[in-house]
Specification:
CATH architecture of the largest domain: 3-Layer(aba) Sandwich
Largest sheet: 6 strands, parallel
CATH topology of the largest domain: Rossmann fold
Shape: globular
Number of strands: 24
Distance between the termini: 39 Å
Low-confidence stretches: none
Mean pLDDT: 88
Strand content: 15-25%
CATH class of the largest domain: Alpha Beta
Length: about 700
């Protein structure tokens, strides 16, 4: 298929060219379209020797862009008038891009004092690469008429070569609430506002297409505490959760404690003199109430009172730890420095880089991109595309998902986000007053679609149903009363009775405690020999399925075949066409032993039970996953080198492999997702993030939809 190239060009100052460029990469990723990124000409920031755009894409496991032509080479070529030579070099680099990357995002140059002719170079790039231009700017005003005037003025300043093909325009840093007001929209998303604005300014006479609207957001500017320490020349007293806690507000506290209590909110960075033991103690007390301050900056250079610090030490360690930093400067000087910090997004802040990319992607007109590419792109399920697919399927018929750990802050936030995105109807089990308090101190607004079930008021209702299902195992009424004190058991019996559609737990309890009630009450489907599990491993280029890595210690051949068939069905359910490798330490008979024989027998059982499945084994992992190895070890195999479903011979192999890949390659693993149960129950890692919980809820909702259909 023909390669399609888009060149992003900035128009104006501080327009966020890099953010939009990497966000376009994520946009194509969400579509499942093979995309590449090409920073043709390097333009590092002052004091840096690397390209930020490429670095951002590398740390997010999206791409590994090739090195750009050095900035010194760019300046030399333009100063000597040898721009054509420079473009030839650009083309030679461009032709090395892998052929499978069908659409390429090329980032242009920004005009600077030492490169004033950046737009002329951008025009040369557009011509040399036969690229379509995407202009990136920020609006001065939000009304349609003002935007038309601004965009027309912009076009008049650009070299004609940039406009040879009708350009597209992306508006960045948009004041979305103000735009909604001008367009008479209520609670519109960025994409909905874009569509409304497109309709307002639509005209065949306008020489551009408006294809993107990216809103300003405080979250996009929320710096981690870890990123300010060196800039303040600070000394760390308690590192705490420096790499995760974000600064959403800065408060200089020199007042008495009663007058500064309102400043003690999650996300606030407290700046106070080092000798204010009362404020230090108040910050520690806030930590005991689940208020996650961003950090505590102690100013003035004097040493804080040791007894006070010792007294607060345990409180400071709660919830990952409150960062406490001492600086030599005064409170006023420190506050001024904080407000003048370098606004550039640190490459190490992977969470924020992903947030920027997702925010841009959600504001793009993907229908325009598809049409402009003039071809149907071949689907591949990248991690962003996988997550997008999961949530899209879940939205089609929102399911009721019970969350037994309803008082846990991450769980509450995930439930709220699920409601906001219409992914699922979440039910929190927990004390309503405690849930409300946790939401308040974490600045969360409970969504009306999030239900709250007070276990104290409903437990008695489930006593007899539980006894009916467990009396044959010797359960007494006293045992049942005690079991129902466990919210996971309570949620599981509700699922069994059909009052909810799925259950997700494990953020604060073990896998065994999550799975055991399901095995006792939900039981397996008639077509499943046993319950098993899969992980969705989000590698940079695609999502792989690993099974079984969590449940069955040493399955026999029949059970291993059942796990393979279940895993293939799970893969298909989420848009992955299964190519199944049965993993062993031997490839197609190169070794021998009972374990190899088991895998070989299981492979034959799968072929007999479902001849439509593409499966082979035994295969070693490298032969199953790497084409070059496959050509040597298994040249005739239809699976070797292209497997996307990996079935491990036992729990020791599977669990070890998934953790090794996850930790060594910085890979996100979603799961374990249980399969084979009559109704869906899924476990979380105790270190799960809000996103992990959200997508596990979405997976569970999709499973629930499949269960109801079957």
């Amino acid at each position: 298929m023909p390669r399609h190239t888009f060149l992003t060009i900035p128009v104006g100052n501080c327009v966020g060219l890099t953010s939009v460029s990497i966000g376009l990469v994520r946009t194509f990723d969400r579509l499942g379209a093979p995309v590449g990124f090409f920073k043709a000409l390097s333009q590092p920031h002052a004091g840096e020797d690397f390209d930020r755009s490429s670095a951002y894409l590398e740390v997010t496991n999206t791409l590994e862009p090739s090195a750009a032509i050095s900035y010194e080479r760019v300046k030399d070529a333009t100063a000597s008038g040898r721009l054509d030579d420079l473009m030839e070099e650009v083309i030679s680099h461009f032709e090395k891009i892998p052929a499978e990357q069908e659409s390429i995002i090329v980032e242009g140059l920004v005009a600077t004092p030492d490169l004033p002719n950046a737009q002329a170079i951008n025009a040369a790039l557009a011509r040399a690469l036969n690229a379509e231009v995407i202009l990136v700017t920020r609006p001065h005003e939000n009304g349609p008429e003002a935007l038309i005037r601004q965009l027309n003025e912009i076009l008049n300043t650009l070299p004609p070569a940039i406009l040879e093909v009708r350009p597209a325009v992306v508006l960045n840093h948009v004041n979305l609430p103000a735009l909604r007001k001008r367009l008479n929209l209520e609670l519109a998303t960025a994409h909905q506002a874009l569509l409304a604005l497109q309709e307002e300014i639509s005209s065949d006479h306008l020489p551009y297409d408006l294809i993107g609207l990216v809103p300003s957001s405080p979250d996009l500017a929320a710096t981690r505490v870890a990123d300010i320490v060196s800039q303040l020349d600070g000394r760390i007293i308690f590192p705490g959760d420096m790499k995760s806690r974000r600064i959403r507000e800065i408060t200089l506290c020199a007042r008495t404690v009663p007058n500064m209590l309102g400043a003690l909110k999650t996300g606030t960075l407290i700046v106070t003199p080092s000798d204010r033991s009362d404020i230090i103690t108040a910050a520690a007390l806030a930590a005991t109430r689940s208020i996650q301050l961003a950090g505590l900056i102690l100013t003035g250079g004097c040493k804080p009172d040791e007894a006070t610090i010792a007294f607060c030490r345990d409180a400071f360690a709660l919830d990952g730890g409150l960062p406490v930093i001492q600086v030599e400067s005064s409170s006023y000087e420190t506050a001024r420095s904080l407000f003048n910090l370098n606004p550039e997004l640190p490459v190490e802040d992977i969470e924020r880089v992903n947030l920027v990319m997702e925010t841009v992607a959600l504001g793009m007109d993907t229908s325009w991109l598809r049409k402009r590419c003039s071809t149907t792109v071949e689907k591949r399920l990248s991690p962003p595309a996988f997550r997008h697919r999961v949530t899209t399927i879940a939205r089609r018929s929102p399911k009721r998902i019970i969350l037994p750990e309803g008082e846990e802050p991450r769980t509450i936030q995930a439930a709220i986000r699920c409601a906001e995105r219409s992914i699922a109807i979440c039910q929190l089990i927990g004390d309503p007053a405690q849930i409300a308090e946790v939401a308040r101190v974490n600045n969360l607004s409970l969504h009306p679609e999030v239900g709250i079930i007070d276990p104290a008021t409903v437990r008695d209702r489930y006593l007899e149903p539980l006894l009916e299902r467990r009396r044959h195992k010797g359960m007494t009424e006293k045992d049942a009363v005690e079991s129902l004190r466990d919210n996971t058991v309570l949620g599981t019996i509700m699922l069994e009775l059909g009052e909810v559609d799925g259950l997700v737990a494990g953020a604060v309890q073990s896998t065994a405690n999550t799975i055991r009630p399901a095995l006792q009450l939900i039981k397996t489907r008639p077509d499943a020999r046993a319950v098993s599990s899969v992980f969705f491993m989000c590698l940079p280029d695609q999502v792989l399925v690993y099974g079984d890595c969590a449940v069955n210690p040493d399955p026999d051949a029949e059970l291993l075949a059942d796990i393979a068939i279940q895993s293939a069905a799970s893969a298909k359910a989420f848009g992955i066409e299964p190519v199944i490798a049965m993993i062993s330490y031997s490839t197609l008979g190169s070794g021998s032993g009972s374990n190899v024989d088991k895998v070989k027998e299981a492979t034959e059982i799968v072929r007999q039970r479902d001849p439509s499945l593409v499966i082979d084994g035994p295969l070693q992992y490298d032969a199953a996953s790497i084409r070059e190895v496959a050509r040597t070890k298994a040249p005739d195999s239809k699976v070797a080198g292209r497997a996307n479903v990996f079935i491990f011979p036992d729990l020791n192999t599977g669990n070890t492999t998934y953790k090794a890949v996850q930790r060594s390659a910085n890979v996100v693993s979603m799961g374990p997702m249980l399969q084979g149960l009559r109704k869906p129950v899924n476990d979380l890692s105790r270190g799960a993030s809000v996103d992990d919980i959200l997508y596990t809820i979405a997976l569970t909702a999709v499973q629930a939809g499949q269960t109801s259909v079957s």
